[in-house]
Design goal:
By secondary structure, this protein is of the alpha/beta class. It is about 35% helix and about 20% strand. The protein contains 16 helices and 19 strands. It has helices at about 10-20, 60-70, 75, 110-120, 125-135, 135-145, 160-165, 170-175, 180-195, 210-215, 225-235, 285, 350-360, 375-380, 395-400, 425-435; strands at about 5, 25-30, 40-45, 50, 85-90, 90-95, 100-105, 215-220, 240-245, 250-255, 255-265, 270, 275, 300-305, 315-320, 325-330, 335-345, 365-375, 410. Helix 1 packs parallel to helix 11 (about 225-235) and helix 8 (about 170-175) runs antiparallel to helix 9 (about 180-195).
């Protein structure tokens, strides 16, 4: 049995802690803030509750596997029959383009996506289908040798090394694949929304469109932040020691390996294994290994509490342009009210509600509660960016740490680690760390 210290109580830290505790290790989780969850939490005011961070996930099998491998399946934890408590979203997102055309992108169905694009323009569905299914082999290759199997940069299978070494970028690939800008905009959306420049994103990363088509998007009843509460309860069940309001100053390395973590409270927590579940830049022992990377900056966020009649929108609506706005209805609201969250990217020279009004979505007179959050505030509150490492070209994939790091006994998980940001990828990263550490 190893003494394991998890640094950070976001989704990556929580998932790693319950997996490693189930494997029989003595696990302590140290979280800098007073609450667990990181970006996977909620924010409340005047009777409204919003998801503070992600509100949907891809590849639901990752969450299902997490709960099965650490104890009871998800369904029973929610008091439901069967083992699944996740709710599929019929529409991944609605895209509204500058020419006023609209696409409702369904998830989990190849045929439905083809039909949706055919509704935009005859022949576009076939083009989209060809684009997405070019990623089928990419997904199979990465699933076996990157997402579900610990990897070493200098010992990659030849096909994976060739893929990661390609100079092709998503911007050029989309230009080649589509004559119409609209399907290219749909394929690029996730990266643009996360703050990346398409000229720096490798083409293989576009596999996310294949994941959306195959697996769809999913959430939890009441909001995805409920995962935080479920995992916190699982920590108690598995006997994990949880230390909140305990910022970690650094990982203590002696004789070439990690032996403890030091906290700002002046003490050390002994460790045989340390899992860094925060941005490695915050740990001096790891910072030099990631000095060439940069964080992807969060968007401007506004949480709205609305009353009266408001437009009936799907799970996520994207207003393309500059600025680009994303509307996410959801959360909990008093009777007769609605909760929305807005994300803004680009040239936000005016209030997002005025931008919405020009797009014929005028809710300015319906606002009864409002919380504005800047990117700086979000990064400060969460201790880092949930969007992880900024794509800066093909070398970025090798510059992320994880699951192993160059420091013996130290592992990395989370948005800044392998395989990347998003609940699906972070959850896969936690599974990789558990595989590397192994059972007690």
């Amino acid at each position: 049995m190893a003494r394991v210290v998890i640094v950070g109580g976001g989704y990556g830290g929580l998932a790693s802690a319950v997996r490693l505790a189930k494997l029989g290790h003595d696990v302590t989780l140290a979280e800098a803030s007073e609450t667990l969850g990181g970006a996977l939490t909620s924010i409340s005011e005047d009777g409204f509750t919003w998801d503070a961070g992600p509100d949907a996930l891809l590849v639901p099998a990752v969450v299902r596997d997490l709960f099965r491998k650490s104890g009871r399946p998800l369904g029973p934890e929610l008091g439901l029959e069967g083992d699944d408590g996740l709710v599929p979203l019929q529409v991944v997102r609605e895209h509204r383009f500058a020419d006023t055309s609209v696409l409702r992108l369904p998830g989990g169905s190849r045929r439905a996506q083809v039909e949706a694009f055919e509704g935009l323009s005859p022949g576009m569905g076939e083009q989209w289908d060809e684009y997405v299914h070019d990623y089928e082999e990419v997904w199979d290759l990465l699933r076996r040798h990157y997402f579900e199997e610990p990897w070493q940069p200098d010992a990659l299978p030849r096909d994976v090394a060739r893929l990661f070494g390609s100079r092709d970028v998503l911007y050029k690939h989309l230009k080649r694949s589509f004559r119409d800008d609209r399907p290219a905009t749909v394929a690029a959306h996730t990266f643009v929304a996360d703050g990346h420049d398409l000229r720096n994103v490798p083409t293989w990363a576009g596999v996310i469109t294949y994941l959306e088509q195959c697996f769809g998007a999913w959430t939890l009843p009441g909001g995805l932040h409920g995962l935080r509460d479920l995992l916190a309860a699982r920590l108690a069940t598995r006997g994990v020691t949880v230390l909140v309001d305990t910022p970690v100053r650094d990982i203590e390395v002696r004789g070439g390996r990690a032996v403890a973590v030091s906290t700002t409270r002046g003490g050390e927590i002994p460790a045989d294994v340390v899992v860094c579940a925060v941005d490695p830049r915050r740990m001096p022992a790891l910072a030099s290994y990631v000095e060439r990377t940069m964080p992807a900056i969060p968007p401007v966020v506004t949480h709205l509490g609305l009353t009266g009649d408001v437009p009936d929108l799907p799970h996520e609506t994207v207003l393309h342009g500059d600025p680009m706005l994303v509307i996410r209805p959801g959360g909990r609201a008093p009777d007769g009210c609605t909760a929305w969250t807005l994300h803004g990217r680009g040239r936000l020279a005016e209030d997002m509600l005025r931008v919405l009004a020009r797009a014929k979505i005028d809710v300015r007179d319906n606002v009864v509660a409002r919380i504005d959050r800047s990117p700086r505030e979000l990064v400060t509150d969460w201790g880092g960016s949930p969007h992880g490492v900024l794509w800066q070209g093909r070398h970025t994939v090798r510059q992320r740490l994880g699951p192993r790091t160059p420091v013996e006994g130290v592992y990395a998980v989370g948005a800044h680690a392998t395989p990347g940001a998003g609940l699906a990828y972070v959850g896969l990263g936690a599974a990789l760390v558990a595989t590397e550490v192994g059972p007690a």
